[in-house]
Specification:
two-stranded antiparallel ribbon; six-stranded mixed β-sheet; about 725 residues; alpha/beta; about 10% strand
Length: about 725
């Protein structure tokens, strides 16, 4: 990865920009060969192993908090009626195979391999598909590279390229997965902390449920206020706590197994699953809405890839989380077999009285940690959505100089905090929150299975038999779970649907408005011939200085420039039309970040700033101007070298330097929609909603670090 990030010369950059895809690949290969590093030594390998183990330890506090604390609320969320020994053995068998198949096989072994340059989540899967087949609506250089190859496209890939309905459905599925994951970020803190704090009522019966809810809300508020310090610092505080929880709960489980039911592990046999459903029928099917919670938080293994790495997540799950959960659930089940009516408090009841208070403290602290995994994943997903223009711009803060995926958003953080507190205070019943939680968990898993199957077929070219086997096993398994949890929608399951619907409406309204805006700009764009005509007007005066004029489209200029020129009647000596281009890749190498070019007119240049959805707009204003002007000068030199002429080379470079010294200004359009009377009802309402969102979101320009005194906004109305 470090080799890929090494900067090339500007001359090589121009070759990459102008040559064909085949020659582009050749130049990149030369760059890698010329910048190759020696093979790692044994000492280096040993250091890397220790570093991976240390990162695996840190994942305990961020990635696995929600998953490993699930024993707090799984049994209490089940509506068991006079359970028998056979029932408990069947439930444990279901949980064991759910953890093994979904947790160990699907997420830890397969899903983590489907990262998009280190980033995970449903949008990463969608990005992989967009770069392999022509289904994305955003520009992507790597999509072009793929189209230049002679690789034969799969039939499924051709189907998506040719079907507009299929492409829209695929986008909707990716958006729904993101919305459900954000809903998960609301419910995980609520149910984890509430379930842990409920343990205080056993030794103090006088404490009412209301006080437990208030105390839980206070704890969550404190947790959200800590988020601004970043994932690394939070992980440093929380990983020891989660390590203590991961170690102590299986020890209690082993003690419970020995004391109550030593033969509990016979339930590993799938025979007990078939017996369970044969005996209980519909009631057994309905109980699946509770057992699915044993795997809650497993999607964070995939969504949090940007915060850590694949190896560390796999090591932590295989050697700590998975055995800890199996032993803990086995111990709980062993206790409940001997005490069948204690399932409503299935965790604290099976804790020996001698260690009750230490375990209460550890479980409360672990529940706080559990909230962190989905909060971090929510920040990552929101950042990806903002970068791809599917979500209104919010403030994104990078909290680490080493891990680019560690981000924090103040607006999102406080909205999550309010929603979590509201869920606890309004829906204090743990069973209702558990029902809502089950809906989120199953929907996210089902969406991941669907998208991952498409990645297998279209991107990985997995043999059809293996892809079909994966899809059938997990889609059927998760589909049965979904059918069960959907029966709980009236009993609290509607909460995540309401949250997801609101988020989806915001995303659709923003996306629709951005598309209409882009449509107007492309229809009324200024091409090079018209630009030449405008600049040839004798009434236009050229003034000293360097102007960066920001435009959203790459093939021409936005109508804002014509509006500006018509009213100002002047233009700087050097003008650089600058486009911020987000690509459907996670990260753009630094040598491809800024691409400068001459547009064929005196003093008129173009500049494209490329960013992936996991990159940070971290350029400072002065550095940005310096990089662009250096790129322009190198570009001009290359053009004159190709023409084998130096007649006006020095003059043109001197003009650029002189304009930079005279002063730099950044001009951007501030556009609004003017809704005509002929617009449809749908257009009027959606555009009005977009205007509300646009008026309250952040500007993209300050993210470059450009001083506000150097910025000018040109207002213009687009008629729709």
């Amino acid at each position: 990865m470090e080799q890929e990030m090494v900067s090339q010369s500007d001359k090589a950059l121009l070759v990459i920009k102008t040559e064909s895809c085949e020659k582009d690949a050749t130049n990149v290969c030369v760059h890698v060969l010329n910048n190759s590093t020696p093979f790692p030594t044994l000492d280096h390998k040993g250091t890397e192993k220790w570093r991976t183990l240390f990162i695996a330890y840190k994942t305990l506090g961020v990635v696995f908090g929600g998953l490993v604390t699930s024993p707090l609320y799984v049994y209490p969320s089940m509506q068991l009626k006079s359970p028998t020994e056979e029932n408990y053995l069947g439930i444990f068998s279901i949980m064991f195979w759910t953890l093994s198949l979904i947790g160990l096989v699907k997420y830890a072994s397969i899903a983590v391999r489907a990262d998009d340059q280190g980033e995970g989540g449903t949008f990463a899967l969608y990005s992989l598909l967009c770069r392999k087949i022509n289904i994305n609506i955003l520009s992507s250089k790597r999509s072009c590279a793929n189209s230049c190859t002679t690789e034969k496209q799969s039939k499924l890939g051709k189907f998506f390229e040719e079907s507009l309905v299929a492409r829209r459905l695929l986008l909707f599925i990716a958006i729904l997965g993101m919305c459900m994951l954000i809903g998960d970020g609301v419910l995980t803190p609520a149910i984890s902390v509430l379930s842990a704090m409920d343990g205080i009522r056993a030794p103090f019966p006088s404490i009412t449920k209301t006080w437990v809810e208030i105390l839980s809300a206070v704890v969550l508020i404190a947790l959200f206020l800590l988020q601004k310090y970043g994932t690394s610092r939070v992980s440093f505080l929380f990983s020891p706590i989660m390590g203590a929880w991961t170690l102590t709960t299986p020890l209690v489980g082993i003690f419970s197994i020995i004391k109550h039911y030593p033969s509990i592990y016979k339930a590993i046999s799938p025979h007990y699953i078939f017996t369970f459903f044969w005996r209980n029928g519909k009631e057994g099917w309905l109980l699946l809405s509770g057992t699915i919670l044993c795997i809650t938080g497993s999607e964070a293994m995939f969504a949090d890839l940007g915060h850590f790495n694949k190896s560390s997540i796999q090591i932590a799950f295989l050697f700590t989380i998975y055995p800890s959960l199996v032993l803990t659930y086995a111990g709980q089940t062993a206790y409940l077999i001997r005490n069948p009516n204690d399932h409503k408090d299935g965790f604290y009841k099976f804790i020996p009285s001698a260690v009750y208070w230490p375990m209460f403290v550890v479980s409360t602290l672990a529940a706080i940690v559990a909230s962190q995994s989905l909060i971090s994943a929510t920040f990552s997903i929101i950042k990806q959505s903002v970068a791809l223009d599917y979500f209104p711009r919010v403030k994104i803060v990078h909290t680490s100089t080493r891990q680019e995926g560690e981000v924090y958003s103040p607006e999102v953080n406080y909205i999550l905090m309010l929603l979590c507190v509201a869920v606890i205070l309004i829906f204090g019943d743990g069973q209702e929150i558990g029902n809502a939680f089950g809906v989120v968990v199953t929907m996210v898993m089902l969406i991941t299975t669907t998208l991952l199957t498409l990645v297998m077929i279209i991107v990985w070219r997995t043999p059809p038999v293996l892809a079909a086997l994966y899809f059938v096993v997990f889609f059927v398994m998760e589909g049965v779970y979904v059918s069960s949890v959907f029966t709980k929608i009236p009993e609290g399951g509607w909460i995540p649907f309401a949250i997801s619907l609101i988020l989806a409406f915001i995303m659709f309204g923003w996306f629709y408005g951005r598309q209409r805006k882009m449509e107007y700009e492309l229809t009324n764009r200024i091409d090079m011939d018209r630009l030449k005509t405008l600049l040839s007007d004798p009434g236009i005066q050229r003034v000293p200085g360097l102007c960066f004029f920001y435009t959203k489209i790459q093939d021409g200029l936005t109508p804002v420039f014509g509006h500006y020129l018509k009213n100002m009647k002047s233009l700087h000596n050097i003008i650089v039309f600058t486009t911020l281009r987000y690509t459907m890749v996670a990260k753009v190498p630094p040598h491809e970040r800024i691409i400068a070019s001459k547009l064929g007119l005196k003093g008129v240049y173009g500049c494209i700033i490329q960013y992936g959805y996991a990159d940070s707009l971290s350029l400072e204003g002065v550095d940005f101007v310096l990089q662009v002007t250096d790129g322009l000068q190198n570009h001009v030199r290359d053009l004159f070298d190709q023409a084998q002429s130096t007649t006006s080379l020095d003059e043109e470079i001197a003009d650029i330097k002189e304009a930079k010294l005279a002063g730099v200004v950044h001009v951007r359009g501030k556009t609004r929609f003017h809704i005509s009377k002929s617009s449809s009802w749908f257009d009027r309402n959606m555009i009005a909603f977009y205007e509300v969102l646009h008026s309250n979101c952040r500007s993209a320009l300050p993210a470059l670090g450009i001083p506000l005194p150097h910025c000018i906004e040109v207002g213009m109305r687009y008629e729709v």
